[in-house]
Amino acid sequence: MSRHKISHKAWLRKKTIESAKSHKDPMPVEEQVLKDERVLKLRQKRLQQEKEIRLAKETKEKQVKEQEEEEQQQWEKKLAQLRIKRDQETKELIIEINKRHKEEEQKQRLEYENDYVSFICKPRGVSVTKRVSQMKQPKGGYVHPKSFICLDLTSGRPLLEPENIPPSIVGTTVDYMTRWLDCKSIEDIFISSFEGASAINEGDKAFDLADSISGVDDKSIIACCRLSAYEAISRTQYRISQGVEEILPDAATINSIRIMISRAQTWREKYGPIVGDGFKVFGGDDTRYIAQGEGDFLTADTLWDFKVSKSDLKTRYTLQVLVYYLMGKHSREAKFEGIKRLGIVNPRLDKVYLKEISKISEEVITQVEKKVIGYGAPYRGWSPEEYRLL
């Protein structure tokens, strides 16, 4: 066999010729060669198609893989953006929450400091009437009602007929009309009423009512009753249960008020002259329980409280008038220096009650000053921590 390298085509042609010679009925050489060439071409074509299919498949797989990788990258990029956005929003939310907490803490701190400053700079406590009503007194009271001398004003006949307006308004009306008949100015008498009316935006109505008072006629008494309702708003800081226009005393109530005003005039003429009315007493730096109070009348030697209750003298009435006197004495105002008696006048019962201050024991005076008013129990100079525990 030749050592020369031959092509595959030549080799196949040679083998075909040799195979044809070995058969009994050999196919013509030319036909066999053509047949082999056709087979070869078909085989090559099939191989080429398989190669193309394989290449197409590989290309498609590569494209799919690249597309998947691209989508994966896009998703990862989008997820990263979402994470960055979420982290940023979380950070902003935390900053906002911290800011709000800080503002709330500052607000609470400011409110606390304002409360503390108000607590330190202003007298702490309640009014005289409220403190007295809260007190549990010893048996018979600090000042026994029976220790007061009881005197008739005129006939001594009480007025117990039913009335159609609250007793507090009746009492304030009699008090105001008594002061008005004592030639006091409208502005001084009804200043609390004007303040109460202004608080509910009815200041003009209050001034019109005050201008309509000209005596003890029905119209004047009705106007004064309505002004007394405004005074209740100023004193309690709450609206009354009914509108001022709805306060309309009936004939029996007006008559009772007129009789009480007349009796109060008799009291003024008999025990006057009045040297002070509507006087205020204030707790000093060392009073713990009472902030302030407003007494009714002062004459030359007597401090008076004005009542129109249907009941007889009570322990809280006697304690109240004593507290007014003691706080007045502690104020060191000259008008309290000459006071030697405590008095309570009740024109409804037509009675006057008097008590010599010199007959009240020093022990009772000390107990009232310490336990009721709070002298000797200083509260200034406390720390914020001590204030917080109150």
What does this protein look like?
This protein is an alpha+beta fold and 390 residues long. The protein has helices at 8-22, 29-121, 128-134, 167-181, 186-189, 191-199, 203-211, 218-236, 251-271, 315-331, 362-373, 384-388; strands spanning 126-127, 149-152, 276-277, 280-282, 290-294, 297-298, 302-306, 341-346, 351-356. The strands form 2 sheets. Strands 2-9-8-7-6-3 form a 6-stranded mixed sheet. Helix 3 crosses helix 10, helix 4 (167-181) crosses helix 9 (251-271) and helix 10 (315-331) packs across helix 11. It is rod-shaped and about 170 Å long. The termini are far apart.
Give a concise summary:
The chain has 390 residues and is an alpha+beta fold. Helices cover 58% and strands 9% of the residues. The C terminus is likely disordered.
Radius of gyration, in Å, reads: 54 Å
Q: Strand content of the residues, in percent?
A: 5-15%
pLDDT averaged over residues: 82
Number of helices: 12
Overall 3D geometry? rod-shaped
Secondary-structure element order, N to C: HHEHEHHHHHHEEEEEHEEHH
Q: What is the strand tally?
A: 9
- Detail the poorly predicted runs: 119-123, 378-390
Please describe the biggest sheet, giving its number of strands, its sense, and whether it closes into a barrel.
6 strands, mixed
Give the fraction of residues assigned to helices: 55-70%
Strand order of the largest sheet: 2-9-8-7-6-3
What is the distance, rounded to the nearest whole angstrom, between the alpha carbons of the first and last residues? Answer: 126 Å
Secondary-structure-based class equals alpha+beta
